[in-house]
Amino acid sequence: MPSIFRRSRAAVLAAALATPLAAQEVDPQPGFLDYFGPNRIGTFLANTAIAALRTQMELEYQHLSTDIMRGTVSISGVVARPQLPYDQARQCVVTVDRAVLQSDLSKPFSVASEAVLNLVGASISSACVPRDVAMALRGAGINALELDQAKLSVAYLYATGETSADLSLVANGIAALDATASGIILPRMDNFGAGDPALRVTRALVSLKDQGGWAKISTLLPPNFRDPATISAIGTEELTQAMSDNGQRNVTAVERNFIADLMARVEDFVATGGEITIEANVPPTGITVEPEVYRDEPQALVTTLALEARSAPLARSRILSTTELAALRDPDSATPARRLELGAALLEGRGVPQAPALVPDLLEPLVADPATAPQAAALIARALQDTDAALAYRYALAAAAGDASGAIATLDRLEARMTTQQVLAAQADNIAALTTAAGDQVLQDADDPRQLRAQALRHLTGSGAARSYARAYYFALLAEAAGDVGATSLRQEIEARFGARGPAVRQVWAALSRDLQAQALDAWLTRGLAEKFKTD
């Protein structure tokens, strides 16, 4: 070995021995908690579920990933071979490029509980269906059912109790099927207690779009069954028979019109392809279906839900035209009412691409007009709530002061995303900007301490007066001093609002409450409130 290498090795060894043991660098070792991380546990549970499935079918995959904090499990390169009684040769194969299971996507367990199963690039061999169906598919030239996407999502909204379900199936070269429904289960009582529930339906739609499937399947039918008029006549007869319950009930005019519209759509579908949509034309508040309807006379659902047979969903007929959207380029050309409508459409994505970021600039000029300020401020607050809670809160205060619908809930929602200091500062600025002296007028006109408590409650909630915890505390102190027995609990509620929020908030509230107590005492003395409310 050359001497230079011997000297180098000796130098390295000497340096290592001279380095203190605590200062020597080593490869990082996994910590105890690394073995129990959320994603590691999620992967273990997912593989446990897959192992259970393997007792029923052959199943393999290429990659699995979990993100428990976002509620996502993703599997790629799935190959499954189910064991089916009619597949004696074991030729059934199901492949999926990517399968994703998601839960509580955006705001876990705070707004809704939801679950989504999304299969992308799925292929189902013809051996996976019964033999007679497989023969018919092969006769139509379909050896495997190719699905670009198969997606099912189910959600439960906490605020309203609404349950919704959405299904999308896109079969490559055959058809696309979309279905959506949502509603609320309503309790009903009968003579024996809780009975069958009613349903408040807020959305119901089924849409079928031909993508070449009819051309393939029609080759298997006799020539007369490919004629649109023949199919329409047969369908009309069968549907009328079903609606009449085999002659046991009279078919209403609404039901006859629905059948006629549906068969007209079927004729177009058979003749030229296209789309068939059946949709319930319900108001935003929904339509209540009593149990007697869906249980005893389901045919009446056509009338109850105002079902329509259309060539496209109703949403497409409500798309805003270029003329209607002209206010986006020239807002001054539109009336205030039109600008408010356009702002709501941009916020909800109704008839136009959703663009809440454009709402503040569109509606800001309307905030200065008392006639439109509450509605404009409410829409701007909703547009900003996910990007700038502090700024949105200032608009929400103005909206609540004008009794805009939903403003109180917006205030509560935004306060949960702000610090107490930000909330108090925004409330103080809003009170200072008001030109009315409603509080002074209350002190002057009140002849019952309950009126002072009522003013405190209005300031606390923001309903009927600008939300201000400071002003609420001020009036609660005066009401309590005036002998109102309900004011004490209200004062304690306000004080509790600032408890258990850390030393910084405690210090801010201590200084603010001291000032408010001094103001209340000053008003008590200078306005002669003791003599005003004292009784024998």
TrEMBL record:
<protein>
    <recommendedName>
        <fullName>Sel1 repeat family protein</fullName>
    </recommendedName>
</protein>
<feature type="signal peptide">
    <location>
        <begin position="1"/>
        <end position="23"/>
    </location>
</feature>
<keyword id="KW-0732">Signal</keyword>
